[in-house]
Amino acid sequence: MSTLTNKPPGSGTGHLRRKARPASPTPEKLLEERHSGPQRRRHLFSRLDYKYSPYLYISPFFILFGLVGLFPLVYTFVVSINDWDLLGGAGDWVGLENYAAELSSPLFWNSLFNTFSIFLLSAIPQLVIATFIAAMLDQNLRAKTFWRMSVLVPYVVTPVAVTLIFSNAFDEKYGLINNLLQLVNLDPVAWKTSVFPSHLAIAAMVNWRWTGYNALILLAAMQAVPRELHESAAIDGAGMLRRFFSITLPGIRPTMIFVIITATIGGLQIFTEPKLFNASSSVPGGPDRQYQTTVLYLWDLAFNRGDFGRASAVAWMLFLIIILIGVANFLLSGKIASSGEKRAGRRPMRRGRNASRPGMTGKPAGGQDMTETRRRDHG
């Protein structure tokens, strides 16, 4: 019998013992070794810089906004729900009683009416005239820089100086405007005692100061409209008015929305012009409060009557009114813009339909005539 013996593997002839190869490192291990020590810290700092540095760059704006804008807004609301006196300070908590008292006050509604009346008399003509001036300055004029800088001169003058000049010009006895009216045999106007004439005079001050500023903003937007559009429209036979209403105005629509919103905010916060329009009056806003705006009424409540609680309530209600009107302007402007884009998108479709009809353009009709001629020749 043969005896079987177990031999260790690889002990036979021709079999060589091979050494085991070390395992290859994984990519994660290589990355970990590569970023070990100082390199790892440098990589971490670069990632943090890439991720958080943009927030650091814009943080000064938000810090200033929180200190100058957000904190006063919240603090004003806290004052509005308390019986706060100018000299005595904080009093009892009254909730929404200050708001209810102002909503039932005829002086508040009178100031709101005056504010909206002056705003409409100033904002609408201001935007129309500013658009016209911007269109004129956009043409090839001589001394462009001179004319563009000259429209900005009224904005540079301080509001106090503007108000004093217009207050003397609109004086009822010795004013320049009434003297000119009497030269043409017209009766003098009670600019400082009647409601509508006083609103018209204050609106004239606002328009004189802000029209040139808005005109330069609209001019910058008009210069951004591509000139190729105007040239192609002129070649097609479009006149100056048609190019203005079909190319220029749609091209400056975002800037126009910005100007409308800023004019709305500034018009509803008007204070300096009605305050200094009649400096001799003991009542802010005229003897009968005929041009007392909401901000002027707020100032009268706070510093003449010492009722900071009701004045803060008026400030918050005015803030909400401005927000609502601004949102309404934005939605209305967006709706107008979307409707304009839809009309612009439908025009190529109509042209394509008209081109496919025989007789509407020369190409299809000419193609049919040539086909009929070939058929006759072959026949």
TrEMBL record:
<feature type="compositionally biased region" description="Basic residues">
    <location>
        <begin position="344"/>
        <end position="354"/>
    </location>
</feature>
<feature type="transmembrane region" description="Helical">
    <location>
        <begin position="313"/>
        <end position="332"/>
    </location>
</feature>
<feature type="transmembrane region" description="Helical">
    <location>
        <begin position="55"/>
        <end position="78"/>
    </location>
</feature>
<feature type="domain" description="ABC transmembrane type-1">
    <location>
        <begin position="112"/>
        <end position="329"/>
    </location>
</feature>
<keyword id="KW-0812">Transmembrane</keyword>
<keyword id="KW-0472">Membrane</keyword>
<feature type="region of interest" description="Disordered">
    <location>
        <begin position="342"/>
        <end position="379"/>
    </location>
</feature>
<feature type="region of interest" description="Disordered">
    <location>
        <begin position="1"/>
        <end position="38"/>
    </location>
</feature>
<keyword id="KW-1133">Transmembrane helix</keyword>
<keyword id="KW-0813">Transport</keyword>
<comment type="similarity">
    <text>Belongs to the binding-protein-dependent transport system permease family.</text>
</comment>
<dbReference type="InterPro" id="IPR035906">
    <property type="entry name" value="MetI-like_sf"/>
</dbReference>
<dbReference type="InterPro" id="IPR000515">
    <property type="entry name" value="MetI-like"/>
</dbReference>
<dbReference type="Pfam" id="PF00528">
    <property type="entry name" value="BPD_transp_1"/>
</dbReference>
<feature type="transmembrane region" description="Helical">
    <location>
        <begin position="251"/>
        <end position="271"/>
    </location>
</feature>
<feature type="transmembrane region" description="Helical">
    <location>
        <begin position="189"/>
        <end position="208"/>
    </location>
</feature>
<feature type="transmembrane region" description="Helical">
    <location>
        <begin position="149"/>
        <end position="169"/>
    </location>
</feature>
<protein>
    <submittedName>
        <fullName>Cellobiose transport system permease protein</fullName>
    </submittedName>
</protein>
<keyword id="KW-1003">Cell membrane</keyword>
<feature type="transmembrane region" description="Helical">
    <location>
        <begin position="116"/>
        <end position="137"/>
    </location>
</feature>
<dbReference type="InterPro" id="IPR051393">
    <property type="entry name" value="ABC_transporter_permease"/>
</dbReference>
